[in-house]
Every structure is written in structure tokens, then in C-alpha cells.
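Page 42, continued from yesterday. The earlier attempt failed because a stray header line got pasted into the input along with the sequence. Redoing it now with the clean sequence only.
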Amino acid sequence: MSDKNLLNKDFIRGFLEHLSLERTLIGPFDTGKVIEFREVKADEILLDDNSAYNSIKSFYFPQTELMFTFENNEVTDNTNIPGYVIFGARPCDMEALRVMNVVYSSGKYSDPFFKRRLNANFLIGVGCINTKPGCFCSEMNINKEFSDFCDIMLVPKNDGYIITHTSAKGMSALKSYSNTLEINHDIDSNPANCKDLTKNKLMLNITKHDNEYFDVIDWEKTVDTCRGCGICTYICPTCYCFDFKDVTKHGKAERYKCWDSCMYPKFTLHASGHNPRAKRFERYRQRVLHKYKYVPENFEGHVACTGCGRCLRSCPAGVNIKDIVKQVTDKQNQE
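This time it went through. C-alpha cells are written below.
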């Protein structure tokens, strides 16, 4: 990338104001308690190196989403999908979105609602300058300064940003705002002179049978502080489990897709009353296996963890999934 693409923060705010004429603007906002992604005005968005408490997941996979309605023997699909301009997603969040896209946009279980939102949204990523507390993105082989899974990528430099578009949608938006800018149209193989990350991803051996992980460590002792509150799954940018809820109003039935959590006892409760994962440590073990073994095994090596550190920072009991996975992999290597 050339420094001719270095733009100041006033340009960025003006560009966001321009984009918000067609889409609702979402960005990191300081509530006084936490920084969170929410609907904002361009002059309210934080342009610093702090990360938001939440991720951008809910703007692609809402916590509650209407799927369709039943009325007069007719089924009406919900196509009323809002479009957002999302600013400030970090590389770990964009890589999480890449995982969600692989899961929800491929195979026989492809989700049309996710795909509609992916197409409707306009995403602007911002690279990190510093590693945040709890982050371990480098151990997930993620470049904290750059991701191409967005429409426009901003790399902080001095008191501005080096900007490049990473999609046709991004190029069109930049041209419509300022035809005088000579914006780089290419993505460097090593953008912004970022270091080359060659470490292997922190993941489990997908060739091992599931049962080999059941007793590889003392799971019950390892996660005995876990309270099963589920905050780790709700705050995680790659957790995508959901349940269906049907609601009847004035003779019209509606079906909703709602977030669910593998950490809840009823998540695997059978109609017979049997629960294959009745104990809390069994549910946490499943969470680890799902993220670090089952997803890589079924989706071309993608890992359902990007090292964003949100679960580490948010867990009230101090459970550290990174350290637990390392315990498992270290044990594997000793065998």
C-alpha cells in the first residue's frame, strides 16, 4: 500500500456520514461503562485503538430474528432485511465473520437470512495497533493489522489511516464519495508491512476420535469454576447455535430464530428426559471440541475461535479456553 492512500480522520467521518445516507451506521461507542457496537452518528464513533465489548455478530446473526409468518394457509418469508454500514470491526471479528459465512453459506444447511444480511451490509475494518488484554489472535494465525473479509480496510498510521478497498462494493463507495482520490485497487500479499504469521493455529487433532478427548485431561477439575452462565457463547463472535420459537398473534403465527447456548442444561435435553450432557463439564468439553475440532473437521480447517479474548475478559469465573486447549494439545504431544 502506498502512503498516497493515507487519509485523515476528518475524511473518514465525512465518508461515514455519506454512507449513512443509505444505511444505518453502526460503530464503536463509549457508553460510559463499556465500548460497544451500536447505532451511532458519524461524529460519535470512536476512532482509537480500543476494542468493543461485543462483536459485530448480531448485525449478521441477530439475537432474535423473524424467519417467516403463517397466515390463511400461506407462508410468507421475511425478506425485510435492513442494511448497515458497520465501522470498526477488528481483524479477529472479520475472520469470525468468515467462519460464520463458511458455516451458514455452504452445504445443504445454507442459511438464506445470513446470506441476505451479508449482502445488505457494508463493512469497514480497522486494524489493531496494540494487542488487547486476553487476546491471542496471533496464536490463531490471524494478522491483527489486516483482513480482506470486508469492503474497505483501514490500517492506522500516524494520525490517520491507510485505506484500501477489498471489494467492488467498497471501490464503488469510495468513488461515489470522492472521484479525486487515487485509492489503491490492489490488496498487498503482506499489507502495511505486517509480519508474516507462520504459526500453526491453536486447534485439536481432527484425525483423533472424539472419545480420545473425553478423558485426555480431568475436564471436571479443569472447569470446576464454570457457572454455566453462557456469557462466553453470547459474547463469542463465532458461536452460532440457535433455537426456534413459534408465536401466535391475532390468528397469525410467526417463527423466530433465537440465540441458544451449548452451556445451558436444556440445550441437549431430549423429549424422553434423557440428557447426554447433563453435567456442566461435559457441556464445556463439547464447546471446546466443537470450536477446535468439529468445525475444522467439517469446514476446511476453519477454527471457530479467532483469539479475540472476549470470553476471557467477560467470564465471571475466570475460565480460560486458550489455556484449556493448550493443556489438551500438550497432553496429546506427550503421548
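Notes: The chain has ten helices and eleven strands.
Reminder to self: strip header lines before submitting.
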